[in-house]
C-alpha cells in the first residue's frame, strides 16, 4: 500500500521511508506493549475490551483509502498524510494489544481447566 503509486491507490513512498515508518512503529509498539499492556489488561480484563481492541482493525483498514485521498489532494509528503500514518499505526498497536489479550485468554482457558490442574498436581 505504501509503495504503490498514488494513481493505483497507494502513497508512492520510497523503501527508505517505508523502513523508517515500520522501524519507528516497531520500536514504539514494543515499548508500549511492555510498559502499558500489563497495566491496561489488569484494569480492563473484560471481553468487551478484547472486542474493542480487535475492532481497531477496521479503523486501521479504513485509513488506507483516507491516506490515498490525502496523498491525491496534498501529495505524499504533506504533514497531514504523515499524521494520518501515525494515527493508523497507533490503532495497529491497539490491534496487537488485542492479539496479546486474546492469547492470554486462550492460555488461561486451556491451562487452568479442571483436568490440567489435576494432572499438574499429581506428582506421585
Can you walk through the features of this model?
The chain has 124 residues and is mainly α. The chain has one domain (6-111). It contains six helices and no strands. The protein has helices at 15-35, 37-43, 47-54, 56-74, 79-111, 114-121. α1 packs across α5 (79-111) and α3 (47-54) runs antiparallel to α5. The longest helix is centred in the last third of the chain and has 33 residues, at 79-111. It is elongated, with a radius of gyration of 20 Å. The protein starts with 14 loop residues before the first helix and ends with a helix. The relative contact order is 0.13. The model has no long low-confidence stretch (mean pLDDT 78).
Which overall shape is indicated by the principal axes computed on the Cα atoms? Answer: elongated
* Mean pLDDT over the residues: 78
> How much strand content do the residues show?
under 5%
pLDDT below 50 for ≥5 consecutive residues: which ranges? none
Largest sheet: none
Structural class by sheet pairing and helices: mainly alpha
* Gap from first CA to last CA: 58 Å
Please, how many helices? 6
- The percent range for helix content is over 70%
The radius of gyration over CA amounts to 20 Å
What is the number of strand segments?
Answer: 0
Please give the domain count. 1
Helices and strands, in N-to-C order?
HHHHHH
Task: Give the arrangement of secondary structure elements.
Blueprint: H1 15-35, H2 37-43, H3 47-54, H4 56-74, H5 79-111, H6 114-121
Concise overview:
The chain has one domain. Helix content is 77%, strand content 0%. Helix 1 packs across helix 5 and helix 4 packs antiparallel against helix 5.
Amino acid at each position: 500500500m505504501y509503495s504503490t503509486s498514488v494513481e493505483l491507490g497507494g502513497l508512492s513512498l520510497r523503501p527508505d521511508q517505508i523502513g523508517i515508518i515500520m522501524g519507528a512503529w516497531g520500536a514504539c509498539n514494543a515499548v508500549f506493549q511492555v510498559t502499558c499492556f500489563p497495566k491496561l489488561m489488569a484494569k480492563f480484563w473484560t471481553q468487551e475490551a478484547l472486542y474493542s481492541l480487535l475492532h481497531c482493525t477496521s479503523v486501521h483498514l479504513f485509513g488506507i483509502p483516507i491516506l490515498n485521498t490525502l496523498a491525491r489532494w496534498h501529495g505524499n509528503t504533506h504533514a497531514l498524510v504523515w499524521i494520518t500514518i501515525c494515527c493508523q499505526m497507533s490503532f495497529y498497536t491497539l490491534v496487537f494489544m488485542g492479539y496479546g489479550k486474546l492469547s492470554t485468554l486462550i492460555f488461561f482457558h486451556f491451562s487452568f481447566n479442571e483436568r490440567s490442574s489435576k494432572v499438574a498436581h499429581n506428582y506421585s
